[in-house]
Design a protein that fits this description.
single chain, alpha+beta, three-stranded antiparallel sheet, 3 strands, elongated
Length: about 70
């Protein structure tokens, strides 16, 4: 799976990482819905760290599923 971080680049993650990334994404949505800005920033930072550490950077012109 390809994950793109705006203004930074894109990363390829193993399919096994999808569940954990989806859990973080759901937590970010819940924080937004609750209007909890501090929690959103915390979860968003964890999402970025997850992608950066678990993913492999791929070229900007790489085409793959996201």
């Amino acid at each position: 799976m390809i994950v793109r971080i705006a203004t930074e680049g894109q990363y390829e993650l193993d399919g096994d990482d999808a569940d954990e990334l989806n859990e973080l994404d759901n937590a970010a949505v819940r924080a937004c819905e609750a209007g909890d800005e501090a929690d959103f920033h915390d979860v968003y930072a964890r999402m970025l760290a997850f992608v950066r550490t678990r993913g492999r950077a791929v070229d900007a012109d790489h085409l793959g599923g996201s």
